[in-house]
Amino acid sequence: MTEHKEFTCIACPRGCRLMVSIDDGVASVTGNACPKGATYGAQEAIQPMRTLTTTVTVAGSSRARLPVRSSADLPLSRMLEAMAALDPVVVRPPVRRGDVVVRDLLGLGLDMIATDDLQAVGAAPDGDR
Amino acid sequence: MIGTIDTDIVVLGAGPAGLAAACAAAEAGARVLVLEREDRPGGILKQCIHDGFGLVRFREQLTGPEYALRDADRLGRLGATVMLEVFVSSTRRMQNGFELTCVDRGGVRTVRATALILATGCRERTDRQVFVQGDRPAGIYTAGLAQYMINIQGMLPGRRAVILGSGDIGLIMARRMTLEGMDVVAAHEVKPEPSGLSRNIRQCLEDYDIPLELSSTVTAVHGRKRVERVTVASVDDSMRPIAGTERDEACDTLILSVGLIPENELAQSLGVPLDPATKGPFVDQTMHTLVDGIFACGNAVHVNDLADYVSESGERAGSAAARYVARHRAGPADGKTERRLVPVRPDQGFLYAVPQYIDTAAPLDAVLYFRSRRTRPDGVVVSAVAGSHQCQSARYAFVRPPEMERFVVPYDTLVTALVDADSLAMRMEDR
Fold first, then answer.
1. What are A61-77's pLDDT values in tens digits?
2. What number is the average pLDDT over the span B48-75?
3. What are the beta bridge partners of residue B108?
4. DSSP conformation class of B151
5. B200, closest residue in chain A (CA to CA)
6. Which entry of A93, B105, B174, B388 is 20 to 30 Å from B115 by CA?
7. What is the DSSP code string of A74-120?
């Protein structure tokens, strides 16, 4: 039995309209302008995966939040669970972008990574470099 | 007065446009000073913690802070100075450049420069600029303000939100508020089609089952101290609410994502002519405004949909300003006579095209950004015509007003075509 799904590609701002047909668990994608769309479409039809970007609490700094991102995509269905797991996380400066803030989130095999720098207290302000 | 700084180029604003402009100018050997009002460089990107930036420029998906830090680091390596927490209180055109009065934590100071680059970005339309009736209680925020509260200050703007408008920041905030535990009731767009990118409709609304109500608007806000509910209604073809379609939606927060306007208060104080179509300065392909020595870039010129294009215009402005300074040093009289401006005249198919002029004396390709006046799903052919000579054409599969398109005319083609033409016509035809 062939199943058909249609959705907008989110791999880049172009936003191609993808048509995916799934035959015995094998997805074939049309409407994509690049290989990224084919990969995305096949995955989206089976299990939607997304990057998570959010913030964590900062202590010991004039800044309140540190932005973080997931090192890989995680299942869309587990986003709210991931947010709940990040709720109690507190970081202290110094943090450098790329630093691992949370290792192996929810046992998914991916980390949460800092996407901004957090200077140590008393260090020169971020911009005076 | 705590002193005077003399430099070649002053860049106003350390967002993506200003940082790219400063890098390009410093790389070309000019002395550059960047003046920034906030306490960190990066502009609005500091609060844009989502990813999707940098695909064009770096071929990577970066978050806003990561994208901004790349240019901030590069600028640091180039040895240019970024002054933070500085406010420019006045600007004057002098015989040989510009004089700015600035206020910072130390006091008042004078900055003198040969060239100015305006990279002041844009501002959100507020509730005073859209016609929503009723009360004015707490709980009405622009999408960017809600983003600042959540991502920088770590505060939720409310518990249950209705979004008016379908601009990208509003869509991004629909997802962000949902992830942070708020209820997002719906996004209402007065036009028959969304104004944000399709990918954001998908990943910010559809992913979280947030309805997008098209041809629908908020007609009134109700609440004494805090928003308690809003009235929403369907609208007709001329965007007027249809009687009988009104219904009330309980919420404590109304988020506005109803457009951005280039910020040009400083440009106006310097007498820089603005284009009514873009609300930004008229510029040539080097991002030189119609006032000699003043360049402009990024969202101050026109509202871009990608940060990558903002940076591209910044780089153009920066290297052109450095050339201007070098020419000025060689002989101050040169600057004025050297420009040969030919207007770009887009036809009715375009909402606007930027730059509005081509300087045929500047050896640089023209990168024209344009928006279509209407959605054309069957695609269009865009061509640039000088006199009777068609010098460039390109096909676009699908155009719609919210999505900016890019059209390049090589310099060689330009000079040949514009030798005796008095304008460069832009035509948009069905494919």
1. 999 999 999 999 999 99
2. 95
3. B103
4. I
5. A10
6. B105
7. EEGGGHHHHHHHHTT-EE-S-B-TT-EEESSGGGSS--EEE-S-BPP
- What is the Cα–Cα distance from B349 to B24, expressed in whole angstroms? 34
- pLDDT tens column, B311-339: 999 999 999 999 999 998 887 554 455 79
Query: How far is C-alpha B2 from the geometric centre of its chain's CA atoms?
Result: 34
Q: Which helix (H) or strand (E) holds B325?
A: helix B307-330
A12 touches chain B (CB under 8 A): yes
Nearest residue on chain B to A54, alpha-carbon basis: B49
Tokens of B282: 């008229």
Partner-chain contact A63 B52, CB within 8 Å: no
**Which sign, positive or negative, has the C-alpha torsion B236, B240, B243, B247?**
positive
Q: Does A65 contact chain B (CB < 8 Å)? A: yes
Partner-chain residue, chosen from A13, A69, A80, that has the shortest CB–CB distance to B63: A69
CA B366 to chain centre: 19
Query: Is A57 in the B-facing interface, judged by CB distances under 8 Å?
Result: yes
Closest-CA residue of B relative to A126 is B40
- Residue A10 forms contact with B (CB below 8 Å): yes
Q: Which helix (H) or strand (E) covers residue B369, if one does?
A: strand B366-372
Set of chain A residues whose Cβ sits within 8 Å of the Cβ of B66 = 97, 115-116
The contacts of residue B141 (CB under 8 Å, 6+ apart) are: B149, B157, B253, B254, B255, B256
The one-letter amino acid at A104: D
- Summarize the confidence of residues B20-32 as an average pLDDT: 97
CA–CA dist B348, B400 (Å, integer): 14
Torsion sign (Cα): B224, B179, A56, B50: negative
Q: What 8-state DSSP symbol labels residue B150?
A: I
Exposure string over B310-348, b if 16+ CB within 10 A, otherwise e: bbbbbbbbbbbbbbbbeebeeeeeebeeebebbebebee
Distance from CA of B226 to the nearest CA of A (A): 25
Torsion angle (degrees, nearest 10) of CA B210, B212, B213, B215: 170
Subunit contact A79:B179, Cβ cutoff 8 A: yes
Residues of B within 8 A of A79 (CB-CB) are: 179
pTM (2 d.p.): 0.93
- Cα gap B265→B313, rounded to integer Å: 20
Considering only CB atoms, which chain A residues are within 8 Å of B203? 10, 50
- Cβ distance B82 to A127 less than 8 Å, yes or no, reads yes
Surface-to-core class of residue A47, CB atoms within 10 Å of its CB (0-12 exposed, 13-18 middle, 19+ buried) = exposed
Nearest residue in chain A measured CA to CA from B152: A65
* Contacts of B270 by beta carbon, 8 Å cutoff, 6+ apart: B91, B93, B98, B116, B291, B294
| Model confidence pLDDT, tens digit, residues B83-117 | 999 999 999 999 889 999 999 999 999 999 999 99
**Alpha carbon distance A74, A36 (integer Å):** 17
How far apart are the CA of A26 and the nearest CA of chain B, in angstroms?
A: 23
Whether residue A91 contacts residue A58, with contact meaning beta carbons closer than 8 Å, is answered with yes
Q: Does B259 touch chain A (CB under 8 A)?
A: no
Asked if A115's CB is within 8 angstroms of B40's CB, the reply is no
